Amino acid sequence: MAKARILVVEDDGDIRELLSYTLHAEGWDVLSVVSAEEGLSHLQTRDFDCIILDLMLPGMDGFEFLRRSKNLAGKDHIPIIITTAKGEDADVVAGLELGAEDYVIKPFSPRVLVARIRTALRRGQERSSGQSVSTMIRRGSLILDSLRHEALFEERTLELSATEFAILKCLMGEPGRVFSRGQIIDAVKGQDYPVTDRSVDVQILSIRKKLGEGGVLIETVRGVGYRFRAEQ
What we know:
Shape: globular
Number of strands: 12
CATH architecture of the largest domain: 3-Layer(aba) Sandwich
Number of helices: 8
CATH class of the largest domain: Alpha Beta
Structural class: alpha/beta
Strand content: 15-25%
């Protein structure tokens, strides 16, 4: 099997060096750059399997990189994991809305980042190979098509990241059932995935925002978790 190719876009030298060392140790090919401009230049001419992207970059920031990368022909499927400072939930939501696959909070554990990358690589391979075991789920005006990886609400296309899609699919699969945050993580990422409950909350917030008025379909059960509203 060919080595996974990882593009790291990070202006902090210490973090960039840590990332390069950690990812090389996993046997992956790593290209590290200091700016979004340089990252886009390489992305236009080379193929990558995953991108690690700092949002707060000098010059072109990570948000603009996300916008432009998703508009590059043949590159929009590449999973992008964003890195951001602790407490910047608004930045995380904005990044997810622009198509980021996942995120990690600085300072992050190398083990956590490696686990996130492995999951992103697996999902990227599944999307590129067209693998899918589920079909369409329809709940009122909300439609989830796993075969095409498309979500529609009132005939409006929802731009969901792979993780958001998987969470929504989990909840829609059993309307009325309350899922704890841990159960959502297990269903979407697999057991023992190193992620915090807060990560689920941020993803749910992003899904609700994209649903607009349909956000009320995802109900919070205080002290327990979330559920998709049962059909009346």
